[in-house]
Amino acid sequence: MRWIALAALLTSVATSATDYSEKNEPKGFYWYDPYSVEQPEPDLEPQPETTPTAVTPKPVKEEMVQLDAKWLKENLPRLSDKAINQPTDTNLANYYYAQRLMMDYASRFSTATKEFFFFETQLQESRRRPMDSFAVNAKHAQVKVAKAGALKKVFERSGLWVFTRSDCPYCAKQMPVLDSLIKRYHGDVLLIAQDGRPMPGYGMPMVADLDLSMSHQFNVTGTPTMFLVTEDKQVIKLAEGMLSRDALLERLLVASRRLGLINETEYEEAKMVHNEMMLADAEQIVELNKEELETNEMYLNQQLKLLLLKQQSGRE
Fold first, then answer.
1. Cα 223 from chain centroid?
2. 3 state SS of 38
3. CA–CA separation, 172 and 164 (whole Å)
4. DSSP alpha helix (H) spans, the chain
5. Cα–Cα distance for residue pair 257/138, rounded to 1 Å
6. For 76-114, how does the pLDDT look when each residue is reduced to its tens digit (9 = 90+)?
7. pLDDT of residue 13
8. What span, in angstroms and rounded, lies between the C-alpha atoms of 305 and 281?
């Protein structure tokens, strides 16, 4: 019986060893692990409570509107209409303060422009016409001499035809102007009288146009009507109706240049204002490089300045 009890004890121990080895890594003969005994967890020091940090939201960037000249041009009419339709203090203030801003922009532009022209001599208006009284008087004297020379040259190769009627009050008022051309510039003036009668008080040469054949030929519809006629039979209409002396002389010079009676230099010298232009002729269209225009902000004014200098140097 003792052997049977001993065998049962050994069997129990073997079973326990087997269970342990199945739950732990095999260690051979050293299957006993003295550290497998559960150790008590160390006491942890209590951590202080933390307060969450508040997150400051990022400020929203304000959308700004530039009250530039474009904005004012677009909105001033709207503000004006609103102020007219509803003239409250607010609407009136909105309009007039916006208007004042536009005026300030314009004043700033005007001041900057004035200072700019002090030093941009190629664009100064004084190159085209005298500005101060001393220069104006000197220019008047110079132009007077040049104009007299040009008109005497014109009347050496041409004359005026003037369609009249003796009962036309406007013809009577035109006669002193025509008489001054005869006396000052030795001009030839021929009256073509639709009623066959001379103008009272003036002994100018006259031909009758009783059947109005000449009037129809030159499309004359009223009196006085004046033509410039060259010795080689070129004809250009100067005016239908009255003209002052200065207006008639100006048209005479323009017509004479077109007909080749005077050249461009003679024409320019007989004017108070010089015709300084970038354009070489009446048909020129300026062309510039597209890429340079878009990428080089100095390109435009540089090229246009060169064009102007070229024309000015050619005239001088």
1. 44
2. coil
3. 9
4. 2-23, 69-85, 89-119, 133-157, 169-185, 213-217, 245-259, 264-269, 290-295, 299-315
5. 25
6. 999 999 999 999 999 999 999 999 999 999 999 999 998
7. 47
8. 17
